[in-house]
Amino acid sequence: MKPHNDTLLRALLRQPTEYTPVWLMRQAGRYMAEYNATRKRAGSFLGLAKSPAFATEVTMQPIDRFPLDAAILFSDILTVPDAMGLGLYFAEGEGPKFERPVRTEADVARLTAPDPGAELRYVTDAVREIRRALAGRVPLIGFSGSPFTLACYMVEGGGSDDFRLIKTMMYARPDLLHAILRVNAKAVADYLNAQIEAGAQAVMIFDTWGGALADGAYQAFSLAYMRQVVAQLKRERDGERVPSIVFTKGGGLWLEGIADTGCDAVGVDWTVNLGRARAQIGNRCALQGNLDPMALFAPADVIRSQAAQVLDAFGPPRNADGTWAGHVFNLGHGISQFTPPENVAILVDAVHSHSRTLRT
Question: Is 100 a catalytic residue?
């Protein structure tokens, strides 16, 4: 069943829209006092993410507060390697860590793609519960980390500044890294399809660390496996198309390759000029992006001006041949936890109002 406001879905599928839809990466997060209160009640981040009730509560908070055009499942990209038995935990002030990183042939041989209906059931339960809570207001986006981004955490054992361990594996033992990525590609495709079956109306692949790769390595170790994932995705559910978005942070050099994965939309970070990206990609895909998240710390008039610049850079909603070019407004990466919430309201209003003027 289509949501009452299906503007996001239409934009992703390059169909006519009355305005440019907007949602924000990490829109349910620490910049909101209500999120922090819920997280405190949950006791920990994992307590929040692994409870369908809490995940639903925080997913709905930005939807209840701002006129956003989509909800995104509240979860974490590391749920998949956690379900592989790597022992995810969060060290205070250090971010996510794995008790059992994947570094040897024996470690790789033990890896299997988890069953989303078993080890990740709490996620699909959350999707169902969020859909009920949304009651058709806006679409729900499901997501996963990309195979390469998940591999970064799995091999490094957590976050990294230089990706020394995974890049050492990539150059010294590419066979091992490819073996990890094959498992991850199956796991990500299974996971996203389970979210679609549970009710996700669009899905996004977050390739957060693909931009750390050299040209050539990106195509072999990140892009190729995202292409595998996209090829396996369910394209519709209950007669409705389920669009897919692929986003590589730092991927501006490879936009045409990303568009050729078969996805419906390419996400871009704030280093990319949307007009040039649109010219490169042509009629293959919609675009999503790409305001610098730090612009949300500026005064209200600057926020409005920056939003207009992004929309103007993309240009008119129709192509020269009269077809529609889809654009979903977003930040170039996740919203900062220090962002004043009132500035989000200013941004959403600015996007909605200015984009309408581009359609007159």
Answer: no
Q: Which residue in 10, 14, 31, 39 is the catalytic one?
A: 39
**CA-CA distance, 266 to 277, in Å (whole number)?**
9
**Whole-angstrom distance, CA of residue 294 vs CA of residue 55:** 26
Whether 356 sits among the annotated catalytic residues: the reply is: no
31 belongs to the catalytic site: no
- Burial class of 137 by CB neighbour count within 10 A (0 to 12, 13 to 18, 19+): middle
Establish whether 26 is a catalytic residue.
Answer: yes
Per-residue pLDDT tens digits for 77-127: 999 999 999 999 987 777 889 999 999 999 999 999 999 999 999 999 999
Go through the domains of the chain in sequence order and give each one's CATH number. 7-357 (3.20.20.210)
Spot the catalytic one: 76, 207, 264, 269: 76
| 153 counts as catalytic | yes
